[in-house]
């Protein structure tokens, strides 16, 4: 069995599978490792997949763009584009919040956004009586993506052209001079670079306090008529995701935080009642909706809301690609392209350009190390 690779990617969730596929497409010798089934863990397993480009943090827009960062897009962009259902995404928010969205957007992409002074333009005015002081933004190019189907396609691509080892948990990684040993059961593999894409459930050490595990509670509700498109209700701090004509998914807010997913409290707590109370304020009260099931997933998040992308430490040969706060599926095409360029350049001994470094500077894991040291 082959035991030496250019890059080993640990974790075949939406981010790991995307990074591995992009690396393979760029000609690197890759192994993708997953302790279970690709796309069956953590945030990828349960994600609703709302794809929206509008971000209040301008730095994140570089990770949600659909175009190429380096010359041309590749297989990951193509797979996610095929999996994307462009239904549009609606935002109900105050005029101030809508203005902040548009300011963050700048002059680019405004042709894909509709701004309305009231919510009457959405679903024949259904929400008008309940959101009288709110405005409406519609992002026409937004929608939903089947992240699990996309991950299955990418894992299949990796298995056909490189190495995909599923049902094989990584126990630990040991850094040597210029390479990394990856121990998994009785196997010891080696790679010049390792990418930690394990989300909140990985075995690898990370900078202290950099990334945490967080529960993602959600309730699926039967309703008289689901919204025509995914709906972000800012004034209620929630979302409504249509799953069918009479079924929608709504996020809960009672969350638990821990250093690792294994330490999370995955109980439902009072999230179902919390959801019922909030959607009633949008008109989905008792006669119009009924909770069917409440579940609790988990994701990896950071205190500043920005993911960790880059070396885990100075001189390290382990890269981090984690902390995507449950929305890695909409960043996966750009992140995989950026990392494929960077690792490909390092393997080839090619200098990485300044624009690339500037794009990823805001996501460097060292920002947490610097805070801890100060």
What are the SSEs and their pairings?
Layout: E1 4-10, H1 14-25, E2 30-33, H2 42-46, E3 50-51, H3 58-64, H4 75-83, E4 84-85, E5 89-93, H5 95-105, E6 113-116, E7 135-139, E8 143-145, H6 147-161, E9 163-165, E10 172-176, E11 179-184, E12 187-196, E13 212-223, E14 231-233, E15 238-244, E16 247-251, E17 257-258, H7 271-280, E18 289-301, E19 308-311, E20 318-322, H8 328-348, H9 354-360, H10 366-373
In words, what does this structure look like?
With 374 residues, the protein is of the alpha+beta class. Helix content is 28%, strand content 29%. The protein is built from 10 helices and 20 strands. A hairpin with a 2-residue loop joins β11 and β12. α1 packs parallel to α6, α1 (14-25) runs parallel beside α8 and α4 (75-83) runs antiparallel to α6 (147-161). The radius of gyration is 21 Å and the shape is globular. The mean pLDDT is 91.
- Encode the helix/strand succession as letters: EHEHEHHEEHEEEHEEEEEEEEEHEEEHHH
Biggest pleated-sheet summary: 9 strands, mixed
Find the structural class using helix and strand composition. Answer: alpha+beta
Task: Give the overall form.
Answer: globular
Helix content bin: 25-40%
Instruction: List low-confidence stretches.
Output: none
Average pLDDT confidence is: 91
Distance between the amino and carboxyl termini:
46 Å
**Strand runs, count:** 20
Query: How many individual helices?
Result: 10
As a whole number of angstroms, the C-alpha radius of gyration is 21 Å
How much of the polypeptide forms β-strand, as a percent range?
Answer: 25-35%
């Amino acid at each position: 069995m082959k035991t030496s690779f250019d890059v080993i990617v640990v974790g075949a969730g939406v981010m790991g599978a995307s990074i591995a596929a992009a690396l393979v497409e760029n000609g690197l010798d890759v192994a993708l490792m997953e302790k279970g089934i690709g796309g069956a863990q953590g945030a990828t397993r349960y994600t609703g997949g709302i794809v929206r480009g509008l971000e209040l943090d301008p730095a994140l827009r570089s990770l949600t763009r659909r175009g190429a960062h380096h010359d041309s897009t590749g297989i990951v962009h193509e797979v996610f584009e095929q999996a994307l259902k462009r239904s549009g995404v609606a935002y109900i928010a105050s005029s101030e919040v809508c203005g902040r969205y548009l300011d963050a957007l700048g002059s680019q992409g405004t042709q894909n956004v509709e701004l309305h002074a009231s919510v009457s333009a959405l679903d024949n005015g259904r929400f008008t009586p309940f959101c009288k002081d709110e405005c409406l933004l519609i992002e026409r190019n937004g929608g939903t993506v089947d992240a699990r189907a996309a991950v299955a396609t990418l894992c299949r691509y990796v298995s056909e052209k490189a190495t995909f080892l599923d049902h094989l948990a990584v126990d630990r990684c040991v850094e040597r001079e210029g390479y990394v040993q990856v121990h998994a059961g009785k196997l010891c593999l080696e790679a010049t670079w390792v990418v930690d894409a394990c989300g909140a459930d990985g075995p690898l050490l990370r900078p202290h306090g950099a990334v945490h595990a967080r529960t993602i509670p959600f309730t699926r509700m039967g309703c008289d008529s689901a919204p025509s498109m995914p709906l972000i209700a800012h004034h209620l701090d929630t979302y409504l995701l249509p799953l069918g004509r009479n079924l929608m998914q709504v996020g809960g807010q009672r969350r638990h935080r821990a250093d690792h997913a294994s330490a999370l409290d995955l109980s439902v707590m009072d999230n179902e009642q919390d959801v019922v109370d909030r959607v009633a304020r949008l008109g989905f009260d008792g006669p119009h909706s009924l909770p069917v099931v409440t579940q609790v997933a988990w994701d990896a998040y950071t205190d500043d809301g920005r993911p960790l992308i880059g070396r885990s430490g100075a001189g390290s040969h382990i890269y981090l690609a984690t902390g995507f706060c449950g929305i890695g599926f909409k960043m996966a095409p750009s992140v995989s392209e950026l990392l494929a360029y960077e690792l490909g350049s390092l393997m080839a001994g090619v200098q990485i350009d300044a624009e690339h470094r500037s794009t990823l500077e805001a996501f460097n894991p060292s920002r947490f190390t610097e805070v801890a040291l100060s």
